[in-house]
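Limitations

Structures in this collection are predictions, not experimental determinations, and the ligand pose is part of the prediction. Treat each record accordingly. The example that follows, with manganese (II) ion as the small molecule, is included so readers can see exactly what is and is not provided: the inputs are given verbatim, and the output is the predicted complex.
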Amino acid sequence: MIVITSETKLLDLELDCLVSYIFEDDINTSIEFLNLDDELQQYIKGLVDDSEINGRFGQLNLVHTHNKAKQKRILFAGMGKKEDFSLTRTRKLSAEVSRFVKNKKFSVCGGLPTSVELPNSLSISDFCEALVEGAYLGLYSFESHMSKKADSTESKPSQFLLGEFNKQERDNIDKAIKKATIVSESAKLARDLVNEPANLMTPSILAEKAKAAAKDAHIDYKSLTRNQIEKLGMGAFLGVSKGSDEDPKFIILRYIGDPENPDKELGLIGKGITFDSGGISIKPAANMSAMKGDMGGAAAVIASISGAARLELPINITALVPATENMPGGSATKPGDLLTAMNGTTIEVENTDAEGRLILADALAYANTKGLSPLLDVATLTGAIGIALGSVSMGLFSNDDTLAQELTESSQSTGEKMWRMPLWDEYKEQNKSTVADIKNTGGRQAGSITAAQFLHEFAGNTPWAHLDIASVFMSSKVDGIYQKGATGQPVRTLIALFAKLAAK
Ligand code: BES
Ligand code: MN
Ligand code: ZN
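Predicted complex:
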């Protein structure tokens, strides 16, 4: 589907379907805007009087125009009450609308964002940006391995027109559409990487995908081999990869968008476990297949740095992805084994299924040797975060209030919810080992916090934040902008954060 702005009145164009957005408390404005043939107007008024068309949030009413208008159909899309309206609601509604017209196989459609009076806080270009994001994300499907491509081959709708706008408005809206397209494509890239089965998304393949994304975005790419990883002394990372026949990779992407400030460079770190069997502390069979997505953090990191570069944001970012499988092979690390991280810290491996914190430990230590700051890691780290927050929100942990605040605000603007969790010193007790500096599990209580405290040890005093996305990286159902499967969280929030930091 391509989205195009129109200077021509959409009401003068022949369309399969015209979408009219309506507020519950202000339906008449939108209906009058349509300037319909009298008979049709009365008919629609009647539906409004009968409350059949009522503008409640998410309600869709399709009306056939029977040759009384140039458009074959008008779809009324309920935006709810003005006071409850938000960009998050816009995206959700637009996703529902786009799936509706797709299922009906309408080809050329149009929408009338100018037919509503938006609440003061929303600009028309923000509204259009959210409409486009919602449509692209809502239409996402992962069908590359299906012999019969039910959805994508027909690619309906083929065109979606937004109008009408005068020349100057149009320039603005076109910019907003371009931004929304890049942001959605970034989220879709992350979804694709996560949805791909693990035999087709090994560490080497993930590195190739990162290389391709870097090429598209014109940024630097490098990937360290096992030999180089050994030379760096990343014993914790290598300890995880020992049970697998697949070579580990340490992927490095670099985007310099602010060359005037070479000393300011953000370190972005993504957990890249391409399959997490649990290792010797093997997981139960039920749902183990979901662990093909244990590189969701890596996917978000790769997709968001490429988005930042494509948007040409004035910011410097290095992205680091330790990528490996966690498998129970003959030379796998065993419970009780001792590993030494790159910074010299010794780690007792109490449970080989707590592997994410091990590979991130070396990545954080590496980031610190490079002077990157602030540090931000993204990881499908613990099942416990889902126990704490459900599938509604990811967990945010940080040693820096400003960074936590910036992340929270970015997340509020994208609707990808996060909730800050505590990092009190008391929780460090649970990670104490009797044979090493630290152990890799802290017991059942506060599992996501003790995991974060483990990472904290390796971030040190550098301003750092950790996003535990295990609760939100997959969706169990079609829901607004999400399809069943990978959600692409928190790519849009990361890009919003980069834009915020770039504007500072
Ligand atoms: N990758 C998992 C966490 C996870 C669970 C992600 C469910 C997505 C959905 C992680 O490596 C893991 O296994 N964590 C353990 C830690 C425990 C052994 C301390 C967990 O959460 O059970
Ligand atoms: Mn695990
Ligand atoms: Zn894992």
